[in-house]
Design goal:
The chain has 133 residues and is of the alpha+beta class. 33% of the residues lie in helices and 34% in strands.
Length: 133
């Protein structure tokens, strides 16, 4: 087999590097996309008599709804978020933009995690809220 020297050898090295880069993108691209899609921290919940109550003319999302949804989204993949075994919120979440609430999660070792929750948008039929991981 003839020996490649000079520019030919340089092209082979560049070709190998390009192959490695393309291969890495082909493998990591879908993983990163999946991570982005399932690591959501925002939720839109319908306002009805099953998920909320009205207090002083405002809808208030029930605390168990906020806690359950937050717990289900908090640790969607092993490399996203901290694994929690329980989540509780001290009160319901008032459906008024800017309303804040701190829920409390429990790790497997029993230690507590504060989880800030904030209402970002409200319509006549839904409330959009997010939490910090």
């Amino acid at each position: 087999m003839p020996r490649v020297t000079g520019r030919g050898q340089e092209r082979q090295v560049r070709s190998k590097i390009l192959g490695v880069v393309v291969g890495a993108v082909a493998v990591l691209g879908p993983v990163l996309l999946l991570t982005h899609e399932v690591s959501a921290t925002q939720s839109t919940t319908g306002l009805d008599h099953y998920s909320a109550v009205t207090i002083d003319g405002h809808w208030v999302l029930k605390s168990n709804i906020v806690a359950g949804r937050t717990l289900s989204l908090y640790h969607p993949l092993p490399w996203v978020g901290t694994s929690l075994t329980d989540m509780s919120c001290p009160t319901g979440l008032k459906a008024v933009a800017g309303t804040r609430l701190t829920c409390h999660g429990t790790r497997g070792d029993g230690s507590l995690v504060d989880v800030p929750v904030k209402v970002v948008a409200v319509t006549d039929s839904s409330v959009t809220w997010k939490f910090d991981r």
